[in-house]
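Side project, low priority. Logging it here so it doesn't get lost.
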Amino acid sequence: MKPVLLLCIAALLSFSPSDFPVPPHTKKSLFYIHRNLNNHSVVYEVNLNDKGVIDTENPFRIYWIRVGEKNKYKELNYMERTFAYGLKTQSLGNGKFHAAFVAKKERTIDVYLDDKGQATALMKIDNKMSKLVRIFVQVAEDGWWPKVAYVEFFGTDFKTNLPTYEKLLIN
């Protein structure tokens, strides 16, 4: 009886993707991450230098938007940057960057400013080159370290502009 009750309580406390607010979108916006644990967002943006191009020394700004908290915007802490939400980046020249997620190094994005100056993150989603829009992470916090059950990638096909989706199960 207790395990069933705990599962019911956990289900009630989890958020579904439709419950999440969409973070504000600017020319610097790349994509955002939501998790089932709360309705906060991890936002990924490019840093622009004085000339309006992506800063080669510090190309990305990654931060929390914490809904309902007084300090709404919060930088990632060391653990979050190093093990969960950070990016390992490499400049490709001409204002383009290649980045890998620290939590899943096999998943990479290519970042650049498009012809209209909009920051763009391209990645393969379901084997289609896509503009990454958002990521959803299903997390279980049942120990010292949160465990990821699966990750969902949402984007738009780079050629057709049709929605793309992929669910990645984590073992």
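Brief comment: The helical segments are 2-13, 78-84.
Revisit when time allows.
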